Amino acid sequence: MKKVACLVVLVALLQIAGYAQTSPTGNWLIYFGNQSFKKDWLWTNEIQHRNYNAFGDLEQLLIRTGIGKNLTPGNNNLLLGVGYIQSEPYNAVTNIKTRQIEWRTYQQFISKQNIGRVYVQHRYRLEERFIPDNFKIRLRYFLGLNIPISKKEMIAKTWYASIYNEIFMHTASTLFDRNRVYGAIGYQASPAIKLELGLMQQIQQNKSRTQFQLVVFNNLPL
Predict the structure, then answer these.
(1) Exposure pattern of 60-85 as b/e (b: 16+ CB <10 Å)?
(2) How many Cα atoms sit within 13 Å of 76 on the Cβ side?
């Protein structure tokens, strides 16, 4: 099982690296927080610092937070959230950065299950995007797999493989927005802390781009 998990991640990373030959590689530094309170409620918070290069040339700053409710212990939850997104694209003619501020509200449902040693997560998200002089609605579906490598379960001091695919769909004009494919090696340091280092390939209509990702997960009770 360990060999299979390593092979799956290696194939995913090689596939993503192949795309990287045709596009610049950026870097995403990500923090996910998930704090429970009362009996079945949770507060989520997220910060993503996305760079055009290894670090220092900001492409996008994303901050999200939300309140959710567990429908069943640890397996299914509903969440309502809001997001602030600061994008800094380069002008194609002048090569000078511009700044765009976007606000989002979103609703999501997460379902988790175990299939043998594989931890499976489905996430269904609806986003309302408030862009200057524009309003968009987007649908997202995320399928993620975590596979323990050094132990049989996702417990403290466990190395694991992480793989996901997420597709984004518009509700108007062109249906397809983008697709993200990700492969990483992770470490479950404690019941509360996970770390991941991986590659994500983002595929859009006319371009694709590879991103290194360093991700910290923090799950603590309030």
Answers:
(1) bebebebebebeeeeeebebebebeb
(2) 2
Neighbours of 54 (CB within 10 A): 10
Backbone dihedral angles phi then psi of residue 31, each to the nearest 5 degrees: -125, 125
Q: Say if CB 75 and CB 113 are below 8 A apart.
A: yes
Quote the CA–CA distance of 12 and 40 in Å, as a whole number.
35
Q: What is the pLDDT of residues 53-101, one digit of tens each?
A: 888 899 999 999 999 999 988 789 999 999 999 999 998 888 899 999 9
DSSP 4: H
- Indicate yes or no: pTM above 0.90: no
- Name the residue among 78, 123, 124, 131 with its Cα closest to residue 104: 131
Residue spans per domain, the chain: 1-138
